[in-house]
Write a structure and sequence with these properties.
By secondary structure, this protein is α+β, with helices and mostly antiparallel strands. It has three helices and four strands; from the N terminus they run βαββαβα. The protein has helices at about 15-20, 60-65, 80-95, and strands spanning about 1-10, 35-40, 45-55, 70-80. Strand 2 (about 35-40) and strand 3 form a beta hairpin.
């Protein structure tokens, strides 16, 4: 299952976050069970987003606990175009 995470760095924590991130081994950051699809940063407003894959939410919680003291994070499941299109087709196919 794919999830979209968005985050906003708390104003008072910006330097701490950038220091932690700049010193992190990004290849080892994700707990087992999470595959990072892509991550993007908006440096101007200290926000960002990423797409990950995970079988369940447990490794996501584990990962977020590493950052939740410094950033506000939201996440939700997402689907790609083909799956969303099929969901819509199935919905309207069942209507008279």
């Amino acid at each position: 299952m794919k999830f979209m995470l968005t985050w906003s760095i708390k104003t008072e924590n910006r330097h701490v976050v950038f220091e932690r991130f700049s010193n992190a081994d990004l290849s080892q950051e994700m707990p087992e069970g999470i595959k990072l699809i892509g991550r993007w940063h908006s440096i101007g407003d200290f926000t960002g987003c990423c797409i990950i894959e995970a079988e369940n939410e447990a490794p996501i919680f584990q990962w977020l606990l590493l950052w939740n003291d410094l950033v506000d994070v939201n996440y939700k499941p997402v689907v790609e175009d083909e799956e969303a299109q099929q969901i819509a087709k199935d919905l309207f196919a069942s209507k008279p």
